[in-house]
Specification:
It is a single chain. By secondary structure, the chain is an alpha/beta fold. Helices cover 32% and strands 19% of the residues. The chain contains 16 helices and 21 strands. Strands 16-9-8-21-20-19-18-17 form an eight-stranded parallel beta sheet, with helices on one face. The chain is globular, with a radius of gyration of 24 Å.
């Protein structure tokens, strides 16, 4: 069976099940299944032209599709409490029955169910004369890892709400359950913050963008203004869209570094003492936040806004690549350090981490950050660490202290790296080749001591967009690498092999093509 990611157990049954014009989707056992059922119904309607109504409280006929939550547990996708995502799918002459303990599991079952149909089910136009039957089958399935994420950087190049929803839809198709939304950076601030309109009106736009690679000199720019930001209504719509697909949106607000765009809007927040422009090139910049009361008021407003817009229990605070240069030069920062009891320039980052954690904790939320958040000193017991540096001693220290880690390292999950050494590959951030075989041969946390690996909750693919100005380039860099990653994160290692994956991928390409995904083709 050409299913990606590979299910745990598949057993054939005699006979077939037929989707017919009279088929309905019947919801049972939970009051909040309609949105998930509509995800399935919309896909089937597009390809078949059938009405496919969603009905609650009726007995399912043999030609219907039954979505059933066994314990009446909604398990909303916004809380990341890692509910049981196991499901059972039984298709045969008696009907098509999809069941799970909660809605999370049903979201995964829906994606498997769709892949049991001919690939043409992913068409956005009616496929006349298609055979909408499924051979009898039982699928018992569950993921290996709890956190199966895909990340998107919209700071370097803005992606409108429709592109973000498409990104999430494709992630859900491959049973990724976390959308890590990198909303702020030196090159653009995309999050509306109550009481601070200039954060987006000024910080959301840059005057021009670098042409070519960051390392090239002299630098050249395109002279074209670029930017954008999301409204609150768009963010809420995206969160609801993701929730219907069992995907949790984890926003990242990168602080106290990577915030030149914010300081361009509000220079009084910066440690340098002057107003920079929104950054027009790539790399690590020196601008960091200061410790003044006005800056701390802004942090509180950011936390309030984020908690209002995003139901995720876990919020990403960034914390990576924070330079101390302007902290050490600023007399005012040094004075405030004494007042606040901060003993070193690096300790300022730890202070920000602790302050943000306290603010989010007041809303019942926990923080996650890149592995550098460990460097600044003590972090809360419930803080999680996202490892991006392959040899990070900070991530190892986090595991030893009992904290949870997400494996998101540059050497196998950074999809801004090239896929081969061919000169035909698009411009990329480095020369580190990450192809399908490399992704497939890795395992989250495999380099940690065996006794610590249970603290690794999963992994995540990163899409940093410095060199991806278009949706087509995002497609090319992400797919099919995200397919390989989905197998690694979902499927039992002993059941999968690279040759078998490539056979399944050859059929999967047809699905991606029908969805308009400009995937890179592997031989």
């Amino acid at each position: 069976m050409n299913i990606i990611p590979l299910p745990k157990r598949v057993e054939s049954l005699p006979g077939k099940w037929f989707l017919i014009p009279e088929s309905s989707i019947v919801c049972s056992g939970c009051d909040n299944l309609a949105a998930t059922a509509e995800v399935l119904a919309e896909r089937l309607r597009c390809a078949t032209g059938y009405d496919i109504p969603v009905i609650e409280g009726k007995e399912a006929a043999s030609h219907d599709i039954l979505l059933k939550v066994d314990q009446g547990d909604d398990a909303g996708a916004g809380n990341l409490d890692f509910p049981d995502e196991s499901y059972t799918l039984k298709v045969g002459s008696e009907g098509a029955h999809l069941s799970s303990q909660n809605r999370h599991g049903l979201c995964r079952a829906v994606q498997t169910f769709l892949q049991l149909f001919p690939e043409s089910v992913y068409s956005d136009s009616v496929m006349q004369g298609a055979d909408w039957s499924i051979a009898g089958v039982i699928v018992d399935d569950a993921p290996v890892f709890k956190w199966r994420g895909l990340h998107l950087d919209v700071s370097r190049y803005f992606a409108d709400a429709e592109m973000v929803k498409r990104y999430i839809d494709l992630a859900a198709m491959h049973k990724h359950n976390v959308f890590h939304w990198h909303l702020t950076d030196d090159q653009g601030w995309r999050l509306p913050v109550d009481g601070y309109p200039l954060a987006t009106e000024i910080g959301g736009f840059r005057d021009e963008t670098l042409i070519g690679h960051e390392r090239e000199r002299p630098r050249k720019f395109d002279g074209k203004r670029h930017g954008g930001y999301y409204t609150k209504e768009e963010i809420k719509e995206i969160v609801a869209f993701a929730d219907a697909r069992g995907v949790t949106v984890v926003p990242e607000i990168d602080l106290p570094g990577h915030c030149q765009s914010l300081i361009a809007a509000y220079p009084e927040f910066g440690a340098a003492g002057y107003r920079p422009e929104v950054c027009c090139h790539w790399g690590v910049n020196q601008h960091v936040l200061n410790l003044e009361p006005v800056t701390l008021d802004f942090l509180a407003a950011v936390v309030d806004t984020v908690c209002d817009l995003f139901p995720s229990r876990i919020i990403h605070i960034g914390g990576d690549e924070v330079p101390t240069h302007y902290w050490s030069l600023s007399k005012q920062v040094q004075k405030r350090m004494v007042e606040l009891g901060i003993n070193s320039d690096r300790g300022v980052q730890g202070w920000f981490t602790t302050r943000l954690a306290e603010l989010f904790a007041a809303h019942g939320r926990s923080i996650i950050g890149w592995d550098e958040i460990v460097e600044g000193g003590a972090i809360p017991d419930d803080a999680m660490v996202m490892r991006w540096r392959a040899n990070s001693q900070d991530a190892l220290a986090a595991l030893k202290s009992g904290r949870k880690v997400i494996d998101a390292t540059t050497d196998w999950t950074y999809f801004d790296s090239p896929q081969s050494d061919s000169p035909d590959e698009p411009l990329a951030i480095n020369d580190r080749i990450i192809d399908l075989k490399k992704i497939y041969s890795n395992e989250p946390g495999a380099d940690f001591p065996p006794e610590l690996r249970s603290g690794v909750l999963g992994g995540q693919g990163q899409v940093w967009c410095e060199y991806m100005p278009t949706g087509e380039l995002v497609d090319y860099m992400l797919y099919p690498r995200a397919c390989a990653l989905s197998d690694v994160l979902w499927s039992d290692k002993e059941n999968r092999d690279y040759v078998g994956f490539m056979k399944r991928l050859n059929s999967h390409y047809k699905r991606l093509d029908l969805l308009g995904v400009k995937a890179r083709k592997y031989d």
